[in-house]
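Hi Y.,

Following your request, here is the sequence exactly as I used it, all 312 residues.
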Amino acid sequence: MPSLRIHHRTIYRYARPVGFTQHRLMVRPRDSHDLRVNDATLSVMPAPAATRWAHDVFGNSICLLDWSPDTRAETLEIVSELDLTHYPAGSTLPGTTLDPFAEILPFSYEADETLDVARFRDRHQPDPQRMVDAWARRFLSHEGETHTLAMLEAMTKAIQAEFTYEARTAEGTNPPTVTLETGRGTCRDFALLMMEAVRSLGLAARFVTGYLYGGGTTVQGGGATHAWCSIYLPGAGWVEYDPTNGLVAGDNLIRVGETRTPEQAVPIGGGFVGDPSDPIGLEVDVTVELTDPPAPEPAEPEPAATTEPQPG
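Below is the corresponding structure, written out as tokens. Let me know if you'd prefer a different format.
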């Protein structure tokens, strides 16, 4: 159970003092059984007139910043600091919890989940030549059954092995067809490619933004926010896959937000009031420090019942 400190610093620089429109931040994770937020601080200069926290449509923690109309500055600095404890599930978890009917592709989600995962199963990117479909079918067995977990792991590792990772500061995510044509991309490009590929096979997929730590391995995508995807597998739930680094089930990954599309998962977004030529620089620095793991907590007593009563 690694204990980590994350320092995320973003600085916007302008040629002359400018004003600021509302900024939307997705920098604070949610507490869960596999991730505990021990402390979280946010500092902003110039200080906003109002800071408001909310949950978006997916339940992610969102911070909204508003400045007074007369605020002007040549720099905007946003610093998020997190103290976390991570309880990674490990790549063996999906294999031990996957429902038997989902072990072989294709399978159908159960009726009570079909509506909930419907939009996550839909294709979101144009693919007129069916390039993504053809690429995804590479991983289906043509001589027998296709085992779900083996197929997903093979796809994850194929992207890592066959595509060239390159950092890109420009906003936006390349369509999967462009990633296939060029054979290169960023972590968010690779995440979207895998999402659209598994969606073509009938699986539900989400985009994940967060942070990456080394944990003694060589990883790509550190030093900034990172992106990967999660896939809904009955019994195992939403299982995380990082095609940039070939990681499965959340090892070395600290998720901050999960969305249907990459555009909904921007860590920091906002605008300024000034001339289009005013922006002169953007600096983003992310450091993830592994600290001593905390002492194990006492085991909680077993619950008396296995099913929680419904509210009301």
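The CA atoms of residues 205 and 231 lie 4 Å apart.

Thanks again,
Q.
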